[in-house]
């Protein structure tokens, strides 16, 4: 080591040392008068664009950072992506597939905030692009949704319901296209297949969740209810379309006469309405054999309904079998919410069964199966303690300072009117042919329905189920209920007529009562059972609706049906209102009608069915039309109707 050091010293000494004079003072200064040019990196110039003081991010860079291992990077990338959505829609559209794939992957992220932030970005994305733009990439979304719903991590499973909420709200039509792929995941989240020889499913208990098993099942059933609602809405619209209900009359001119013929479009594609397609795990497993699908539909209904009954059995209050049947049962919030969800799912299942039978023409085999399999359990486990009411728990938790139930979830319907009306509707479905055998239950149903309507407890929230309930009692099962208690049935009809005549009802409820009463009048058998005299005062006031400034096209069509049936009381009252119609025809507004003239023509057509006018009366009416109606088209058409009126 010493030898090397000596060699180093010798080499240093051997170096030439420059010795010279120092620079004079003033010359040893750095010159600063040179010019500087900016150094520009062109790649950075493309990536960083500024607009109104904000940095504009590159989409590809943002997408790459969505996959970064660091949580802060992924969070920042999501925020940057939200900014990109607000100003760069063209570039977003070009990279839509990568964006959807990147956001969908984050639904499986281990971090809770990342998952929920990605759902918010999805919300903004769905507001920018319509569903037909998203549809080609929706299989990516549905695949990750199914993965999150079946994930081993319970937090990811719970957040999958939030993901589903976003999809149900913004792209329900796309969920409808893929419902058969995700439907089975609902059942897997709350149940499992039995491993013993007994077929079917059994509820699962999850002890490692933060929320209770009851709350978890309630969440799952609530989302299942919303999915069924979308399916029914889609099926109903397609069924109406295929039935030609949306077709418009076509005008055909032959010389000086004009004929109106209803021509229906028969080129619509065939739609599958069987329940088997809902529960099917594989898209390619569907077969067109109707009877085979009916049998499989029965098996799937047989799997779902016991789970619903078990979910209710676990939360219902205990009651003695020896206790009186007709005693109100008070429910906790969780019990009331679970029961309401279970009943709504059963209601939707009944509607789906009816649609399947109407389209497939299978002679009520599913209806009979549903009734025979679950009617007794429905009565013994659910309907036994009808009607129900809910305990007022809101103030209790507020006083303790522990808000266990969110305020927006605490029901204001403590009397459970909607729940009980759904029970009445389901009772009419399960016991359609056995109403007379269950006399006590049937009388209780009549009394409760009358109580709800008479005391003005029909709100906007329960209007739809009230209409279904009223039709099931007075129309579908009217001939059975009349045999059970004719006095109460006629009393209910009188109350409906009286409230309608006195205009004590809301606009929507009034339209509901009008439709139900007119359907009874149009059914000769029911009309004879209730008694035609009971409807005389109702028929007498119906034409007065033509004096209003606004009238629904549904109401006009209902009045047209009454005119076609040549109801004397109605036609007499209608003829007395023709002068008011003449004065009002050019200004009346027809709701739910696209073309104004077509709607007003329906009003003028009503007078075609009046057959008691003589020639002098017709001439007088034509003279009044010429004096009061200035529009030549309206005047000519109205005069034509009066001249050609039913003779």
Structural summary, described in words:
By secondary structure, this protein is mostly helical. It folds into 4 domains: 123 residues, Leucine-rich Repeat Variant, CATH 1.25.10.10; 221 residues, no CATH class; 97 residues, no CATH class; 109 residues, no CATH class. The protein contains 32 helices and 10 strands. The strands form 5 sheets. A two-stranded antiparallel ribbon has the order 1-2. The longest helix has 30 residues. The radius of gyration is 36 Å and the shape is elongated. About 7% of the residues have low confidence.
Cα Rg: 36 Å
Query: What is the number of beta strands?
Result: 10
The number of helical elements comes to 32
How much helicity do the residues have?
Answer: 55-70%
Question: How would you sum up this structure in a few lines?
Answer:
Helices cover 61% and strands 6% of the residues.
Notable features of this structure?
647 residues; two-stranded antiparallel ribbon; Leucine-rich Repeat Variant; mainly alpha; 32 helices; single chain
């Amino acid at each position: 080591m010493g030898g090397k050091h000596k060699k180093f010293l010798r080499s240093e000494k051997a170096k030439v040392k420059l010795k010279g004079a120092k620079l004079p003072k003033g010359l040893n200064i750095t010159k600063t008068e040179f010019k500087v040019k900016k150094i520009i990196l062109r790649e950075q110039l493309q990536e960083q664009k500024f607009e109104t003081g904000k940095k504009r991010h590159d989409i590809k860079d943002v997408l790459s950072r969505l996959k970064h291992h660091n949580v802060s990077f992924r969070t920042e990338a999501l925020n940057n992506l939200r900014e990109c959505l607000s100003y760069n829609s063209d570039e977003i559209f070009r990279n839509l597939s990568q964006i959807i794939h990147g956001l969908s992957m984050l639904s499986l992220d281990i971090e809770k905030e990342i998952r929920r932030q990605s759902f918010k970005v999805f919300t903004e994305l769905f507001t920018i692009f319509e569903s037909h733009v998203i549809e080609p990439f929706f299989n990516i979304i549905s695949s990750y949704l199914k993965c999150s719903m079946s994930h081993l991590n319970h937090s990811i499973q719970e957040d999958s319901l939030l993901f589903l909420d976003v999809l149900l709200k913004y792209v329900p039509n796309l969920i409808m296209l893929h419902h058969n792929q995700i439907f089975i995941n609902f059942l897997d989240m709350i149940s499992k297949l039995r491993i013993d020889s007994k077929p079917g499913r059994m509820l699962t208990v999850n002890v490692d969740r933060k929320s209770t098993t009851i709350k978890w099942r309630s969440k799952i059933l609530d989302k299942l209810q919303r999915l069924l609602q979308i399916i029914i809405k889609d099926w109903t619209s397609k069924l109406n379309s295929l039935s030609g209900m949306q077709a418009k009359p076509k005008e055909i001119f032959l010389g000086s006469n004009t004929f109106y013929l209803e021509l229906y479009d028969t080129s619509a594609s065939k739609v599958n309405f069987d329940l088997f397609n809902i529960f099917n795990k594989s898209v390619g497993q569907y077969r067109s054999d109707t009877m085979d699908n009916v049998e499989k539909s029965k098996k799937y209904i047989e799997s779902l309904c016991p789970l619903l009954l078990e979910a209710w059995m676990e939360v219902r209050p205990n009651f003695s079998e020896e206790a009186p049947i007709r005693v109100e049962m008070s429910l906790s919030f969780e019990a009331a919410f679970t029961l309401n969800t279970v009943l709504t799912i059963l209601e939707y299942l009944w509607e789906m069964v009816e649609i399947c039978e109407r389209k497939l023409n299978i002679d009520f085999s599913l209806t009979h199966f549903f009734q025979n399999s679950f009617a007794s359990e429905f009565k013994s486990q659910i309907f036994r303690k009808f009607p129900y009411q809910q305990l007022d728990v809101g103030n209790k938790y507020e006083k303790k300072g522990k808000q266990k139930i969110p305020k927006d979830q605490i029901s204001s319907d403590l009397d459970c009117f909607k729940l009980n009306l759904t029970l009445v509707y389901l009772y009419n479905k399960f016991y359609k042919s056995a109403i007379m055998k269950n006399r006590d239950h049937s009388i209780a149903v009549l009394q409760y329905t009358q109580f709800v309507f008479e005391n003005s407890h029909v709100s906007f929230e329960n209007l739809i189920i009230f209409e279904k309930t009223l039709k099931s009692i007075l129309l579908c099962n009217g001939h059975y209920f009349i045999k059970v208690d004719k006095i109460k049935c006629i009393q209910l009809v009188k109350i409906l007529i009286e409230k309608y005549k006195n205009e004590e009802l809301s606009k929507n409820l009034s339209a509901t009562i009008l439709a139900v009463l007119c359907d009874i009048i149009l059914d000769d058998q029911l009309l004879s059972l209730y008694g035609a005299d009971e409807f005389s005062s109702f028929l007498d006031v119906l034409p007065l609706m033509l004096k209003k400034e606004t009238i629904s096209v549904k109401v006009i069509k209902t009045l047209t049906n009454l005119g076609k049936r040549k109801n004397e009381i109605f036609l007499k009252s209608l003829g007395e209102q023709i002068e008011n119609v003449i004065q009002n025809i050019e200004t009346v507004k027809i709701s739910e009608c696209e073309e104004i003239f077509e709607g007003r023509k329906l009003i003028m057509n009503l007078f075609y069915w009046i057959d008691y006018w003589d020639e002098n009366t017709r001439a007088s009416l034509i003279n009044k039309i010429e004096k009061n109606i200035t529009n030549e088209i309206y005047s000519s058409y109205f005069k034509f109707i009066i001249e050609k009126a039913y003779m």
